[in-house]
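SAMPLE LOG
Freezer: B-3
Tube label: C17
Construct: single chain, 217 aa
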Amino acid sequence: MHFAPAGLRHALARRNDDDRISYLALRKAIGIIGLALPFALVLGKLLIDGPGLESSMSAYYYTEMRDVFVGSMCAIGIFLLSYRGPERADDLAGDLACVCAVGLALFPTSPEDKAETWVNALHFVFAATLFATFAFFSIVLFRKTKPGVPLTPTKQRRRVIYAVCGWTIVGCIAAIVLVKLMPESSPIHRLDPVLWLEAVAVLAFGSSWLTKGLKDA
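STRUCTURE (predicted):
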């Protein structure tokens, strides 16, 4: 590379810079969708369908916000499929998250007034795996550093953000499982806990990716 013509070196350097900018923009796009989705679903339904909350984010599939939910999941999936991180693990995690995000859109949760089916079970598997993958990105992949490269104060702060976001997602997953194990007669179900826990997990996911989209993140 040191013996390559100056023009070629310049072209390669410019291409690397362009690739870096593209991936920063991709990370920001994923983060923005994640941060906007809970608000878009809840506020959009209130404005169009009237008062009332759904039991989960997935339940908005059966409201006028169906296209927003499906479109957002597919967009996140395509962006994650296009994402290429520094290691093979990043690519595999992105591909898995893509399958799960699109799976959520194609296999919706069962309506509240109908019995659960195998489609609902598959939807739950996709959702749990997707959130687990989001947590893996934040806790493991985003916090990796290059050997021998000292951490700047900014990168140290961002590593803390990734950890907080990732463990927040894990905590929300665990809490959702506990809620699902509670009897239907439990008063806690009246508070729509799954909706709020999912919203917090998605906001944590969006915050992590938006932070990763910052320069030198």
